[in-house]
Amino acid sequence: MKKRFVGLVVTSIASIIFGMLFLSIQPTSAATPELDQSYEFSPDTWNVYVLVKNFGQVCQMITPTKDNFASYMDVYLSDGNGSAVTATLRTNSGSLPGDVLETFTTRGPAAEGFERMSDSDGTDTAITANDPHWICLDAGNNTNLRWYGRNTGYYNYGYMIHSFPSSPTSFIQTDQGFKTYGYDDDPPPTDPGGDDDPVTEGTTPDTSSITSANVSDEALGDTSELVTKPTSLTAKFVTDEKKETRGVLLSWTSSTTVDIDGYKVFRSLKRSSGYTKIGQTDANIVEFLDDSVGSSTTYYYVVRAFQSTLQSASSNIVAITTPAGIGPSKVKNVKVIDHTQNSMMVTWDANEEENLTGYVVTAQIASGSKISPFDIEKDKTSYKITGLDAGEIYKISVQAKDDTDALSAKSSVFQNTLYWSDNSFFNTSYATTALTTIATLLTILFVWLIAKRRAKNKL
To answer: Do residues 264 and 290 make contact, with C-beta atoms less than 8 angstroms apart?
Structure first.
């Protein structure tokens, strides 16, 4: 009894000492990371996955809201074969993944679920909060790695692409499962000041008339002398060999302000008024293709540099008249609003050309095979495509057609068809099990019939 008591005391003391030492060597942090951005829901609603090895890197755009990205994150994976999986946190560059900020690794996951991925040194990464970033997953040697997601429209701060960095990169209207963690920097202590503190007076520029850069019908806003304007704007009409992509290519000389966020491109049908934003570029991009133009139409363009909510003055105005016979303007707002294992419902905005005669809808699988185009009447703005294969990624394109049978440039979206769900009769594993069971029962019945017949013959 005495020996047992002494042993218990020694064990308790050793545990306390070890615990104190363990706590003393724990890394310190400016704050405890908390769940920031995530895309998660109950497992029975995951209905799309990407087999990563088939597409190079698969990337999900995210928009963290914290100043610091934690040294770990969770990604919803399954069916790994045990080899290492690598993910990178990247900046955003022209709506594509940019520079690598941090690399995360994990073992190959053995079962479906959120898998923890950590960086090598346990150091958090400073980022620009509320700016788009990317999580890019590389399967490495993991041939069976799957990244699960769900249909479009659920995560509102990004989208998924695959085949990065090959060209062309495919934009997909699905979102993949993830959880990211982070924290804000601790604010500096407040200086209570006093009567001797200097007082600085000044004014803040009025930016109330400048709307968000993401609004497509943004008008020209107030200008600021703090941002210099771009110069030498030029325009020319360009088209590719297949005439599937065409438009007015704008080029300009960059602003001399070094820390701008980018450029906004404005267009009008009048020289002196009516300009609305049709797009924007990053600061290092000084050209823009306007592919939403029609035949025999004169367009006027200006470009402005912007820095946060400040805009420069306009560049020089450039005018261009598009050639005749190039077809209608590009169809806008093409999207897939519903899809199943073998069908997709596609919608778009109506074109306004007087000589419009209809639309052409095509579906092309990622492997290259193409479904025959569908001719749609001009008063229709939706179409249900049927006869598709389950679990495939399709490029859906819509073109407007005029009375000369000239087609507009293609407006395209990418969308997965659904996989057969686990409770479906057509699920492969269930079908195999059912067939095996039926074969076994038939075999037993056959053996029983033979045995019965032999017994009858003996009688």
So the answer is: no
